[in-house]
Predict the structure of Glycos transf 1 domain-containing protein.
Amino acid sequence: MAKDSQSLLLITVVKNLQKLGFVFKIYAVQSGNSHSLWEQIAGQISILGQEQYSLIDWSIFDGIIADSLEAKEAISSLMQEPFHSIPLVWIIQEDSLANRLPVYVERGSENLLSYWKSVFSRANVIVFPDYTLPMLYSVLDAGNFFVIPGSPADVWAVEAYSKSHEKYQLRKENGFLKDEIVVVVVGSSFFYNELSWDYAVAMHDVGPLLIKYARRNSVEGSFKFVFLCGNSTDGYNDALQEVASRLGLLEGSVRHYGFNGDVNGVLLMADIVLYGSSQVEQGFPSLIVRAMTFGIPVITPDFPIIKEYVAEGAQVIFFQKDNPEGLSRAFSLFISNGKLSKFARTIASAGRLRAKNMLALDCVTRYARILENVLNFPSVALLPGPISQLQQVSWEWNLFRKEIDLGTGDILNMDEWGTSTSSRNSSVVDLLEEEFTKNITQNENWSADQDTISELDWDVLPDIESSEEYERLEMEQLEERMDGTFGSWDDIYRNARKSERFKFEANERDEGELERTGQPVCIYEIYSGSGAWPFLHHGSLYRGLALSSAARRLRSDDVDAVSRLHLLNYTHYRDILCEIGGMFSIANKVDNIHKRPWIGFQSWRAAGRKVSLSISAEKVLEETVQETEGDVMYFWAHLDMDGGFTRNNNDVLTFWSMCDILNGGHCRTAFEDAFRQMYGLPSHVEALPPMPEDGGCWSALHGWVMQTPSFLEFIMFSRMFVDSLDALNANSSKVNSCLLSSSELEKKHCYCRVLELLVNVWAYHSGRKMVYLDPLSGSLQEQHPIERRRGFMWMKYFNFTLLKSMDEDLAEAADDGDYPREKWLWPWTGEVHWKGIYEREREERYRQKMDKKRKMKEKMFDRLTKGYRQKTLGG
């Protein structure tokens, strides 16, 4: 939100990605000067407090870009399910954490290092603007580091510096005369504390120039050579002066400046900049960008990375590396009669124009390519255009011209390695250090308090021992005076079993269960990870339903779906069934968990998408179900029939067309094939249930309530439909395929989107009344009235008697072991019951009853024959 080079980079990238078809939602950790700019680009900006990160449903996004270390709190929420798999690109331009990492290593702060490693490993890609920062952050490298060079930071810094500094004033302050030609020699950004080998090689190339232009007998004019490297306190200057003395150069003709000084000032004073590095650079050298932006003519080796961006003889002059003669020829082109030549000034002018936007196209296209490789778009998404559409890209300078003219914003400096560093402070690094230090101190204090025995403790110890001994003796005397009549073993066993029946089940009956006593309805909120906890409701109307045992909320009476349905132990089936797997678990022996006349469900996503029930709507629902007679389904989260989807003017979005959109265009085909297999229909019979185009709403996000018997009937239908769908998928020729989508992202949750809409088909064709409950106002409105369905409903296929007979046929086959295929899903989705099982269970109960009677008779007979007599009570 600050108007600086980092914002300039991100705004330029976002605006160009929008041209490709990407859509952005912007969140900020605080407001700032660029707030209005972002609103123009991406609409309303959401400013987040620290407690608000967990209240965002990140699952609605195809990917997330974080542009600062300050986004760490948001990334922490992305480390939890169900958000852990959302692609994350993290841009890090600050070095504040990098500067602290050596301190953490030295102190042995393993907890702090481990925490940052886990946060860094969450990102799919961590993007750095240069090749130095990855080395500084190497301790945290999880194999996801990536460099996109080309940030406008250097150009910004030069532009802002030029507004507040004057070239000849700087030369005067540093002892350079107006008519002297100042040649600044720069090299690679990677230096060591001593005079580097890079500069030794550079001196070999530059030596002939020094001898020709800086010796006493030079007649070409007055030249001063400035070497820019390292810092000003590491002996560079002494080494250079020794070299100058051996070459017989004029005193003061060679100087040294370090990166810990005013680097921009040194470059601005220059008449010529000579890039003397012997190392082949991975990215375009930052110092050359700055020199060109200052309008200084540049001479550089013909490295491929430099030749890629600038033209020989037009914006810079090249010379062959390790060729002193070639360097001398190139240098001579810039000198005419002891002054800068006209050609040098032309090169400088062209170079300045080129440097301003030279790296913008590559920078933006690389960001686009990262998103192209990292994001897995769902089938419902309109895919972005090809990157080749980006032909002319320039930084959005016009949006930041005022800040540059005033010299405000972040002015980047150089560290001793020649790396651009941001002046932004990273508060999150300091806060995290304080938090970890505080925790360590508290633990040490607590441990010290526990281990240290004070003098008072020694004084009290005898009294404690005496009191314990007295209590022990008293208990022994009481036990001796009591008669120990415990009864027979049968009585003890019977009493123990009776007490077990009255015990509360773990996490099944607690305060929440007591609150719900007498309620006519309970809504189960289905969730799959701790990241969804903030979206869940509290109160007597709701109860959590965790699809994973590890995801259950602590100190709650949430239902563990896995413990109720073993199928959900398998990650594959838990993922492809999603919320309806939780419904199967509730329906499995439902009397053990749900004893109310009405039952409802709601995905955790309903709260994240602002379609959960308000307090007033909850009250309306509770009052309405108590007065309702007949089969009614109330729903409040409806399918968005607009959805922002672009279609032809003549096309109308219908239930099935929306289902196709959400399932990669395969919904109708897959549904029809599954329905045909479920009922064994011949190929010439239509098998896709018709759905009306009456403009009414359809249920979504599993947000509905119905009578419990109706729910069990719906589950009976759903289990058979899911089994048929899975059979079709299993018969596919492709391994790990998904009939409902070709997207890699959606294969994991293959059946979820069609099963989310399945309740609409069942409710419509089984003749249930469908009523939409506005989640805000609580108003009720019937959808698709039953009288208008005459002639459209397929009642014969949704008749309870037919479904029950089909269910019993499947149960009989499962009971007999007559499996139609190797991986038969149906028996694993719930209870398996048919008439034969009932009869076998009744026979088993009868046999147990007869065995019990027989044992009782044998026992009585033994007592009579063996003369057993009960002892007289009381002695």
Q: What stands out?
A: The longest strand covers residues 521-527. The chain is about 45% helix and 10% strand. The longest helix spans residues 835-865.
